[in-house]
Amino acid sequence: MCGIVGYIGERQAVDVLVNGLKRLEYRGYDSAGLSIISDSNLITYKKQGKVADLETIIEGKNHRSNIGIAHTRWATHGAPSDVNAHPHRDNSGRISIVHNGIIENYGLLKKALIKRGYSFHTETDTEVLAVLIGAFYEQTKNLELSVRKALSEVVGTFGLLVLSLDEPDRIIAARRGSPMVLGIGDGEYIIASDATAIIQYTKQVIYLSDNEMAIVSKDNFATKTIDNIETNNQIHQIEFDLEELEKGGFEHFMLKEIHEQPYTIQNAYKGRLIADKGNVKLGGLRNVADKLRNAKRIIFTACGTSWHSALVGEYMLEQLAGVPVEVEYASEFRYRNPVLYPDDIVFAISQSGETADTLAAVYEAKQKGCTVLGIVNVVGSSIARETEAGIYIHAGPEIGVASTKAFTSQVMVLALVALYLGRMKNLSQLDGKRIASEIIQLPDKINQILARCEDIKQIAKKYIYAKNILYLGRGYNFPVALEGALKLKEISYIHAEGYPAAEMKHGPIALIDENMPVVFIATKDEIYHKIISNIEEVRARGGKVIAIATEGDTQIKQFANDVFYIPETLPMLTPILSVVPLQLLAYFFAKELGRPIDQPRNLAKSVTVE
Ligand code: G6P
Fold first, then answer.
1. How far is the CA of 245 from the centre of ligand 1 (A)?
2. At what angle do helices 477-492 and 304-321 cross, to 10 degrees?
């Protein structure tokens, strides 16, 4: 949550900062603001709303400045408003900070500071940190030392940038629990919550670690721990290109990302699947192969959409590798006392690699001595770095807040893990080859679905009156039902629930009437006839049925009001196909309703707070 960016160099800082905020806006869009130093003045602009609203108040100001910090907010402490927008200043007005994260003990710190005569103008936890840094600066007259002292008193998480009129040639950055990337340009530096704000200027980056600071001036930088021990960081190369951050002719990022899936799932298996041998090579797991083979149990932990792909993974691993699997919401996992054994393998699944709950679950499992692995999209992210080994899904930057291509790529990678482990155990080469040959047909099959995107649009138009929609599926399609419902909720604000189809009769059936459409994911598999019975139960009660069915299934037309066909594949791979029409359905509902599809209200893409 929240995006931060800082710049120091030769360019006009305002331009770099505003560009950076636009790239980071998916992280939060309650307010935006920036501070620059121009002609020995510390100038701040901030505004409730989106970056475009901030632009309206800085337009035409033409401040000359080569240093500044900026922020786009997802509100936690204090309502979204102009006054609560970042940056925040200390009491002298000479220090300005932007912050991503939460200062948990801000109440106590604030009380103590008020007692000492300091005053506050906002409801935010961040202002407390700004005032605290300022209070230390009065004593030390040294910005770096003041930041270090303040941070040693803080409980919570932060990605922090500090700018001061008294040391106008540097930006101080620090992180604990919130991401921070330092871009190293030619005589310039860009520091941001993620690489998307940096790539326009340089591909060379350093990923700061937890409890690390960077002191950045125009010509050099130093990194050290918050306790003042020097650190050495490897320089990494950003792997994606600038074009991947553009809409590429699509109206929304979400639609673009849905259409990228034939290519992104290929990226997930390319170089890993050895189709002619029915095998998988996973370089990232090489060092833990024996532990995986001998694991008595595998635990997946994740949040949101990633939790749904974990459910698909559970079914796959149990089917192909015969290993017991549990799937845990990271937020629950970390707060109970999970019973973990040293020979358990814990996989954390996360698109962003920064979700606070998932990261905390990683720490919890490590603490208990488990082997903790990651399935992550964002290279160099916290979860990627904190796990012992792992697999990148290589889906490229996902900007739309509602996750789409990350889901299918996660499921693809989980299929590879299941095949990998299955082949280490009892899965025959013949079965391995059959699965592999189905995998490589998936991109083409997704293309066939996308080519009929207009049919889904018509279905959305027909049911646009609905206030509630139920999504039902069984087996591998149960997690898809959950994901379809989540997509609809997130971007159209229509209430939707996903359920295992057979559970419908234990409650949701009471809701069914002619105003409540039911989406059935009813593809051909061994329990197909059971789902047909569930469809009949809905029809008998006047419910309207939209079915996602397998091509060639003519029987289903008698039961469903609308049918959308998807190509046939193995049941374990079906989610990669069946989710696509549901992503499109959510998209077209939201579009018909005029919703802000890429930036739905109240949500943020990267949830770095608990
Ligand atoms: C947020 C996003 C979801 C995402 C979830 C988990 O809620 O809006 O799209 O699925 O976080 O995020 P992660 O980055 O850990 O997969």
1. 18
2. 170
Active site residue 2: yes
Which pTM was predicted? 0.85
Give which of 272, 200, 299, 180 is closest to 240, Cα–Cα.
200
| Confidence grade of residue 609 (pLDDT, cut at 50, 70, 90) | low
> Tokens 């927008």, residue?
85
The helix (run of H) or strand (run of E) holding residue 129 is helix 125-140
| Pocket lining: 303 vs ligand 1, CB cutoff 6 Å | yes
Query: Which residues fall within 8 angstroms of residue 77, CB to CB, at 6 or more apart?
Result: 102, 106, 123, 124, 125, 126
Domains plus CATH for the chain? 3-238 (3.60.20.10), 248-448 (3.40.50.10490), 452-594 (3.40.50.10490)
Alpha-carbon dihedral angle through residues 6, 10, 13, 17, given to the nearest 10 degrees = -50
In this structure, the residue with its CA closest to atom 8 of ligand 1 is 605
Best residue among 301, 309, 352, 491 to mutate for probing ligand 1's pocket (most ligand atoms within 8 Å of CB) is 352
Does any ligand 1 atom lie closer than 6 A to the CB of residue 304?
yes
The whole-angstrom separation of Cα 57 and Cα 561 is 52
* Spatial separation of the C-alpha atoms in residues 432 and 254, rounded to whole Å: 33
The confidence band for 279, taking pLDDT boundaries of 50, 70 and 90, is: very high
Task: Collapse the DSSP code of 508 into the 3-class scheme (helix H, G, I; strand E, B; otherwise coil) and give the result.
Answer: helix
Dump pLDDT digits (tens) for 336-359.
Answer: 888 888 889 999 999 999 998 999
Query: Could you tell me if 184 and 206 are in contact, meaning their C-beta atoms sit under 8 angstroms apart?
Result: yes
